[in-house]
Design brief:
Blueprint lengths: L1 H21 L39 H18 L7 E5 L3 E6 L5 E10 L7 E5 L7 E8 L19 E3 L6 E10 L4 E10 L4 E10 L5 E12 L17 E5 L4 E3 L12 E3 L3 E6 L2 E6 L6 E8 L2 E7 L3 E3 L3 E13 L2 H7 L13 H18 L2 H15 L1 H16 L1 H10 L4 H15 L7 H20 L23 H16 L6 H18 L4 H34 L1
Parallel strand pairs: 1-6
Antiparallel strand pairs: 1-2, 2-3, 3-4, 5-10, 7-8, 8-9, 9-19, 10-17, 10-18, 11-12, 11-14, 13-16, 14-15, 15-19, 16-17
């Protein structure tokens, strides 16, 4: 069973790698055809905005009109070379941002609590206004009827050149002002940042002092240069999803840009969000719940433009209104994601094993709250899982212990029927029936544990809470491999000890395979996250202790039966 499971694991890894590296690209019709582009004020080649696609029939008339205006605004950037705009700096205890006064776009975001490499000063840069890897969140107001609006190309003003969260302060507000004196309209675009939070509030306060109604629809778009990730079995990061994603209120979509037609965009969404995904970190836009927003995606080469456009709002003369949205720029901290948008915690993507992985992470989090160390939390949860499966393990362990006692009798049968395998098989089955032994009982616990194992793998791979989390001694990052390969060596020794506690397979070739399998498995696990190897080592040691105890009790019962 170990051999087959190892073979399945190897085949699965090879298939996933092959699909990522050599899968045939989709038809060009699925993406926007490349076209001419120009350099924007932020120093990036921006994809040509395609003509708006006809939305579903249920979309309100205001949403496609606004979407068309957004597409036109994006096209203007391609035809006009703009001078660099002034930027203001905003700093909290967890974020260091640059906001461009052209459009009030978020063009740089450094995560102050997350070093790129543990022990070094350089921080993870999530948003970036560099020429090679442009990544920004652009927001604004627009309207299908044209006219002046505070789009992501408009010029804003602010009284300060920088904002910082002071000691004892829990919130800062960053107001940016845009005016249309001819229409008598003033729009104040305010970013709201809070201590310890990666959630960023966005408010548009519209004040119409003109004589005519003023119409506008809010929109937000994630624009990114996103080259493919180089895949390698030696890098856990290469197996995490990177690219655009969205939630439509009921289902979460990760968009394969070679198969955009399958992503169901453009479409209308009432309660959802859009996101730019990468390993451990995410940028997201969460529109106002309960209102219809049009979601759309444009791609060109390695670039994508994922956008959401709200319904048109009409502001009567001599009145005002407020439009609110939410942004998220930071690590995939599930506690913060859950409070930032409907099921935004899905961006911590556990794949098909989410039903198992989510409760596992919750248990790990509770254990971590008690002991303050993720490594000890893994050990505690492994022990608890062993207790849960104890009745099943006890039953299979007793069968294995009885088979171990029958080893001499099985060898006698092999000698007696060494030239007739059919009679040997019948004799063995008769022996099992008389002794009430199920030879397959030892496989059942392994089969049940495998989904838990894979769920643990994705929890350790995707949970940013365990990124660079230390255990003790030489293990200073549970989400990456053991740098000294000590745990894989311990794992090989533990698995070999477990093999010796179990009955020797009757087939000598099979026995040799089982003998070398612990070393093969340890070599494979050497490149897995240290936290996963820690789980497997702990589970194996607990299994050894349990099986040793069962063997001791079964031998004592057998001896008592013989003497009685």
């Amino acid at each position: 069973m170990f051999l087959w499971l190892g073979l399945v694991l190897v085949l699965w890894i090879n298939f996933e790698t092959w699909q990522r590296d050599y899968a045939q690209p989709a038809s060009p019709a699925a993406t926007v055809a490349p076209s001419s582009s120009a350099t924007s004020s932020l120093g990036s080649r921006i994809p040509q905005a395609a003509p708006p696609t006809t939305p579903p029939a249920s979309t309100p008339t205001t949403a496609p009109a606004a979407a068309a205006s957004v597409a036109a605004a994006a096209s203007n950037v391609l035809t006009t070379a703009l001078e660099p705009a002034r930027e203001i700096r905003v700093r909290t205890d967890v974020l260091d941002l640059d906001i461009s006064l052209r459009g009030g776009a978020l063009v740089r975001a450094d995560l102050l609590k997350y070093p790129q490499v543990k022990g070094q000063d350089a921080r993870v840069r999530l948003l970036n206004d560099g020429r090679e890897r442009f990544y920004a969140i652009q927001t604004g107001l627009t309207d299908a009827d044209g006219g002046a609006h505070p789009t992501h190309l408009a010029t804003f003003e602010t009284a300060q050149s920088s904002f910082a969260l002071a000691d004892g302060q829990d919130e800062i507000r960053v107001p940016l002002t845009w005016r249309d004196d001819a229409a008598g309209v003033t729009v104040t675009k305010t970013y709201i940042l809070r201590r310890g939070s990666y959630r960023i509030g966005l408010e548009y306060s519209i004040d119409n002092r003109g004589a005519a109604p003023w119409r506008a629809a809010s929109y937000a778009q994630i624009l990114r240069d996103d080259p493919p990730v180089e895949r390698s079995m030696f890098s856990v990061e290469s197996y995490a999803f990177q690219g655009p994603a969205y939630f439509n209120g009921t289902k979460y979509f990760k968009i394969d840009r070679t198969k955009i037609a399958e992503s169901e965009l453009p479409r209308e969404v009432t309660t959802g969000w859009i996101a730019g995904m990468q390993h451990h970190f995410v940028t997201a836009v969460v529109p106002t719940e309960g209102q219809n927003y049009a979601y759309a995606l444009r791609t060109e080469g390695n670039q994508y433009l994922l956008s959401t456009t709200g319904p048109t709002v009409t502001v009567a003369p001599q009145s005002g209104t407020t439009i609110k949205e939410t942004l998220f720029v930071g690590p995939k901290l599930q506690a913060q994601l859950k409070t930032s948008g409907p099921r935004l915690d899905l961006v911590a993507d556990y794949g098909m094993l989410t039903l198992l992985a989510e409760p596992l992470f919750w248990l790990l989090e509770q254990a971590h709250n008690l002991v303050g160390n993720w490594g000890w939390a893994i050990i505690i949860i492994t022990f608890l899982l062993k207790l849960v499966f104890y009745p099943l393990s006890e039953s299979s362990g007793r069968s294995m212990a009885k088979m171990r006692l029958l080893t001499p009798r099985m060898k006698n049968l092999q000698e007696t029927y060494k030239d007739d395998r059919e009679k040997l098989g019948r004799a063995m089955m008769d022996l099992y029936k008389r002794e009430k032994i199920n030879p397959a009982a030892g496989c059942l616990p392994i089969l049940i544990q495998m989904p838990v194992f894979f769920a643990f793998y994705w929890v350790l791979l995707e949970s940013v809470e365990m990124r660079q989390a230390p255990f003790m001694f030489w293990i200073q990052d549970l989400s990456s491999r053991d740098p000294l390969f000590v745990l894989p060596v311990i794992m090989a020794g533990a698995m070999y000890a477990q093999y010796k506690l179990n009955p020797t397979p009757p087939d000598p070739i099979q026995a040799k395979v089982f003998m070398i399998l612990p070393f093969v498995m340890s070599i494979t696990f050497a490149f897995f996250p240290a936290g996963l190897v820690l789980y497997w080592v702990t589970n194996t040691l607990l299994t050894i202790a349990q099986q040793w105890n069962i063997n001791r009790r079964i031998e004592a019962e057998a001896k008592k039966t013989r003497t009685g």
